């Protein structure tokens, strides 16, 4: 085939156009991508007490990803393999590979699902309790107006309530199983995502199982299949693009059936 008919070649010199332009124009430079080779690979995060291994990670993200636990042999492989390597391991469906890679990136950014930030975990079970801790700052104090004529601010928190000691407030803590009291209240408390206090000292959150005889002041969170799953959408009547067509055909069939 003549050079003039080959796309990307100069007809007179039979050279690729990019090379020809770089010769006749000294200011023309070839644009070569080096970023994907020079960029450092992303760091491999450490396992957490709630997610200690690959099998638990795949169980948590749901969509039956646990069936691939035998194909991914180690934690480092999970966070370093690319899509092509996952395919060689036997994860054939592109949708599944993308889902695993999306969740591993969220895990790398510490964007966990329910229970992922818990620290005291034994055999996949963690306990959360609402305990009394000292009020740390003035913003934690709920102040009101006194009923006397001077209208001095009334420190409600310092007086205490029927269920709360004076100068204390409720906070959610992750204690080792079996413990009910916070050993060192002076240490800064960690806030746990997805779990909050409701009606004073009642703990609410996803997959929180109430411990008997605690009246929702203590719950346990256990590793469960699909805890972090992102649910897939459902196509109703053929989906958004075919919905009108499917419903029109169905209505036509019903009218014909009624007329027969």
TrEMBL record:
Residue ranges of the region described as Disordered: 234-260
Cellular location(s): Mitochondrion
GO cellular component: a single term: mitochondrion
Major localisation: mitochondrion
Alphabetical keyword list: Mitochondrion
Keyword set includes Nucleotide-binding: no
Record-linked InterPro entries: Ribosomal_mS41, SAM_Ribosomal_mS41
Domain Small ribosomal subunit protein mS41 SAM: start-end pairs: 54-110
Pfam family, one: SAM_Ribosomal_mS41
PANTHER family named in the record: PROTEIN FYV4, MITOCHONDRIAL, SMALL RIBOSOMAL SUBUNIT PROTEIN MS41
Family (UniProt): Belongs to the mitochondrion-specific ribosomal protein mS41 family.
Name of the protein in its database record: Small ribosomal subunit protein mS41
Organism: Arthroderma otae (strain ATCC MYA-4605 / CBS 113480) (Microsporum canis)
Upper classification of the organism: Eukaryota, Fungi, Dikarya, Ascomycota, Pezizomycotina
């Amino acid at each position: 085939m003549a050079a003039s008919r080959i796309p990307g070649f100069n007809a007179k010199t039979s050279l690729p156009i990019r090379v020809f332009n770089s010769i006749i124009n000294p200011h023309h430079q070839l644009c070569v991508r080096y970023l994907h080779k020079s960029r450092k690979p992303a760091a491999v995060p450490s396992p957490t007490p709630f997610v200690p291994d690959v099998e638990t990670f795949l169980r948590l993200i749901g969509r039956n990803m646990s069936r691939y636990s035998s194909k991914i042999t180690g934690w480092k492989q999970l966070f370093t393999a690319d899509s092509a390597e996952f395919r060689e391991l036997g994860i054939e469906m592109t949708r599944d590979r993308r889902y695993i890679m999306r969740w591993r990136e969220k895990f790398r950014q510490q964007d966990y699902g329910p229970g992922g930030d818990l620290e005291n975990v034994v055999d996949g079970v963690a306990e959360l309790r609402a305990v009394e801790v000292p009020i740390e700052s003035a913003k934690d104090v709920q102040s009101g107006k006194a009923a006397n004529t001077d209208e001095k601010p009334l420190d409600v928190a310092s007086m205490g309530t029927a269920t709360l000691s004076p100068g204390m407030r409720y906070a959610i803590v992750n204690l080792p199983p079996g413990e009910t009291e916070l050993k060192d209240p002076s240490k800064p408390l960690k806030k746990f995502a997805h779990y909050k206090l409701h009606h004073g000292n009642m703990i609410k959150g996803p997959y929180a199982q109430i411990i008997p005889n605690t009246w929702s002041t203590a719950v346990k969170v256990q590793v469960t299949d699909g805890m972090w799953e992102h649910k897939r959408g459902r196509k109703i009547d053929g989906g958004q693009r075919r919905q009108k067509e499917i419903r029109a055909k169905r209505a036509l069939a019903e009218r014909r059936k009624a007329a027969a």
